[in-house]
Amino acid sequence: MNTSRAAPLFYLCLVLVLLAVGVPARAESRADLDRASQGALDRLYRINPAARAIGNAAHAVLVFPNIVKAGLVFGGSYGEGELIVNGHVDGYYNSVSASWGLQAGAQTYGYAVFLMNDNAVNYLHQTHGWEIGVGPTVVLVNDGIARNLSTSTLKDDAYAFIFGQQGLMAGLNIEGTKVTRIQP
To answer: How many structural domains comprise the chain?
Structure first.
């Protein structure tokens, strides 16, 4: 590939990704986040009985109702949500990720992370954020894992469910996600 053409293509891709995923000028209002998060959690519980069972056993749930992800070689995602402890909002958070690799597309989705013990909840509070993959063990729950989970087999710190995927994102990439407390 001609290197004189590669650099402009790289910058064009980077600008497109940043425009598609860009961080909003201001956070959503608390009322909007409360409504969207509760609606997303209700939908997850309706479509996945294992999520409801885990939710009943969890000490807290971190729910992000709408994550927007886009990428073309370089990618990223952004969304806002809240931490719910004992049925009450304990704080508001954003989820930001960056990725690099063979990828192309855009999609939206939601995710919920069920924090199963006080250590996981305390880690989120004490570190002023959370890098997924660092700290407490997070298990991504798919249909196969969900069939084998029961309240007696829950041994990990956190269980994550992804739901409501729309759009198309294909590829093989390296990605990191950071969850940080915000003030909407």
So the answer is: 1
